[in-house]
Amino acid sequence: MAALLEIKDLHAYYGKSHVLHGVDLNVGEGEIVSLLGRNGVGRSTTVKSTMGQVDVTGSIRFKGQEITGLKAFEIAHRGLGYVPENRDVFPTLSVEQNLLLGEKKGKKSRWSIDDMYKMFPRLKERQHTPAGVLSGGEQQMLTLCRTLMGDPDLIMIDEPTEGLAPKIVELVAEYLMELKNRGISVLLVEQKLAIAMEISQRVYVMGHGAIVFEGTPADLRGNAAIRKEWLEV
After folding, report:
1. What pLDDT does 152 receive?
2. How is the beta sheet containing 185-189 ordered, strand by strand?
3. Which of 8, 42, 136, 193 has the most CB atoms within 10 Å of its CB?
4. Is 60:10 a contact under the CB 8 Å cutoff?
């Protein structure tokens, strides 16, 4: 499988604080890969670094091209989507206006607003509602859908199920499988082990700013020592 995203020897810094220590990671075409680990180990920094939001050294290649040093909008324009943990909606704009803002101008997308409404009928019901008054789950759906409207080839999603009701968590898992079915790769930062193990082809585990494990979900299930040291509370 060809690697769509290749990260090699990635080091990241916040001021003088050295946060990532030589991260190696890749995501293939049409693959769901999960990045697991406890809070504060560098998972969010990894995706922010890939999106050009953190000072880094090392190599980040997307579709075979080096993207290290590019601005976030330039990276997005190349087909890399990013859904941040903080559900970054435009609160005073309606659901539909938020979705329209996600469209990539001058490019025919694989996705339409109708697709979004079919996937999440709740958004259609609230299409004229200001995004700021939506529930946390609805805002998460909206952020996911707005990113998709830009027609990315790979989408990085940071903690999409954080704080959501179990029923909405199931919806998000279905959404991620639908992305894979449409040939879109996913890099998922997730704390809920069950979801990551259910939908991922491969998983990475992070600890102290470095990758401490890479393998299939079955490999991780069979490695009690890694789970105990790096994942279990």
Report:
1. 92
2. 80-83, 154-158, 185-189, 32-36, 202-207, 210-215
3. 42
4. yes
Residues in the chain: 233
Q: How many independent structural domains does the chain possess?
A: 1
Look up the domain containing 198 and give its range. Answer: 3-230
Flag whether pLDDT at 226 surpasses 70.
yes
Average pLDDT over residues 53-61: 93
Q: Count of CB atoms within 10 A of residue 86's CB?
A: 11
Max Cα-Cα span within the chain: 50
Determine the pLDDT at residue 7.
97
b/e string for 133-155 if b means 16 or more Cβ within 10 A? ebeebbbbbbbbbbbbbbbbbbb
What is the amino acid identity at position 223? N
Q: pTM for this one?
A: 0.91
Q: What is the CATH number of the domain that holds 39?
A: 3.40.50.300
Name the pairing type of β-strands 80-83 and 202-207.
Answer: unpaired
Average per-residue pLDDT for the chain: 90
Q: Which of 55, 14, 41, 53 is nearest to 209 (CA)?
A: 41
What pLDDT, on the 0 to 100 scale, is given for residue 211?
97
Contact between residue 171 and residue 140 where contact means Cβ atoms under 8 Å apart? no
Half-sphere exposure in the Cβ direction for 102 (13 Å, CA): 31
